[in-house]
Hints:
The structure is a homodimer.
Chain A: E1 8-17, H1 24-35, E2 41-48, E3 52-58, H2 61-68, H3 71-84, E4 85-102
Antiparallel strand pairs in A: 1-3, 1-4, 2-3
Helix pairs in contact in A: 1-3
InterPro entries (chains A, B): ABM_dom, Dimeric_a/b-barrel, Jasmonate_Hydroxylase-like
Pfam family, one (chains A, B): ABM
Protein name (chains A, B): Antibiotic biosynthesis monooxygenase
Amino acid sequence: MKKDFKPYYAVIFTSTQKEHIEGYAEMANQMEALAKTQDGFLGMDSARNEVGITVSYWESLEAIKNWKQHTDHLVAQQKGRQDWYSWYNVKICKVERVYEFNL
Amino acid sequence: MKKDFKPYYAVIFTSTQKEHIEGYAEMANQMEALAKTQDGFLGMDSARNEVGITVSYWESLEAIKNWKQHTDHLVAQQKGRQDWYSWYNVKICKVERVYEFNL
């Protein structure tokens, strides 16, 4: 680990969806765009096959809390539980070490 | 957070692949099966679209280190860098809080 490594946070959002998810893609795009404008947002990655995984990265726990409580995001969360997700799991994690390979 | 929550660890493996990835699926299946037999392994989730995300969960940093250094896994890592991945990033994280939604 580099001596100057500054820990940051990851939110691992794992989910399975219902069969019919009308309106989901539009909302997901809106939420991604909105997340990117939040203080302390560092980045995100998403992929979905049988299970969907979205990992977002944040400077602090406070930034995660603020995003979780953002009014528009609360509406999206409510819609998600009501209409789109059959299950989801959220893990708040502290990123302690990173390494990377590049061609 | 529940008072009896015991922190554990997540390895977030994010990657992009080359165009031709002969032998990859077989090796990925082998490595998943092998990981599941390791001491301290708790579970894993994978999905891939433009980017691939595999998150594996472990009881301890020692379990992660042992898996990283497993002989068969070292061979797979070498093949991965040589043949399959154009980029990957590994983040070692401490899972500090978890919440879940179920229909």
